[in-house]
């Protein structure tokens, strides 16, 4: 993929820093980060759900945070050492710490999170402020223009 140098645009614009940062992040997208796997679903007109496969993690080992239009899901797990003399010959179940970040659009807020059968569900809703919602303006009927009659002095 081609890399575009956006630095000349930085000098000629004011207030578009966030847009350029998003473009820089999108162009440097890492495909190597694949743990934990996740789905993003639309559950309604303005409702979404992010589902992460976090098998083996308990509620206490997971944290969900939002800050400055970013959703961050972290998991920290101490590697379990068998205390009864067993030794692990193959460990295919991941027990490593992770942090997964998602960029949120404006006015998207987290409404809840739940952990069910090894899947962490994070529910999101886009709440558009009343001032930014489209509103219908009724078209009224204008009153007829008043006619002015000139009176002449006799």
From TrEMBL:
Keyword Heme: no
Domain SHSP: 29-142
InterPro entries: A-crystallin/Hsp20_dom (IPR002068), ACD_IbpA/B (IPR037913), HSP20-like_chaperone (IPR008978)
Gene3D superfamilies: 2.60.40.790
PROSITE patterns with a match to the protein in the record: SHSP (PS01031)
Keyword Lipid biosynthesis appears in the UniProt entry: no
Keywords: Stress response
Pfam family, one: HSP20
Family: Belongs to the small heat shock protein (HSP20) family.
PANTHER family membership: PTHR47062, SMALL HEAT SHOCK PROTEIN IBPA (PTHR47062:SF1)
Protein name: Molecular chaperone
Species of origin: Methylocystis hirsuta
């Amino acid at each position: 993929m081609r890399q575009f140098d956006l630095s000349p645009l930085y000098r000629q614009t004011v207030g578009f820093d966030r847009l350029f940062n998003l473009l820089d992040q999108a162009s440097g997208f890492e495909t190597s980060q694949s743990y934990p796997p996740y789905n993003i679903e639309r559950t309604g007109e303005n409702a979404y759900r992010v589902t992460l496969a976090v098998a083996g993690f308990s509620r206490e080992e997971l944290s969900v945070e939002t800050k400055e239009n970013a959703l961050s899901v972290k998991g920290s797990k101490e590697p379990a050492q068998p205390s009864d003399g067993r030794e692990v010959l193959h460990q295919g179940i991941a027990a490593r710490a992770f942090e997964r970040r998602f960029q949120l659009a404006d006015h998207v807020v987290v409404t809840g999170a739940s952990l069910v059968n090894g899947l962490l569900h994070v529910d999101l809703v886009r709440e558009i402020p009343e001032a930014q919602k489209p509103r219908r303006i009724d078209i009224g009927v204008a009153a007829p223009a008043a006619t002015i009659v000139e009176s002449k002095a006799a």
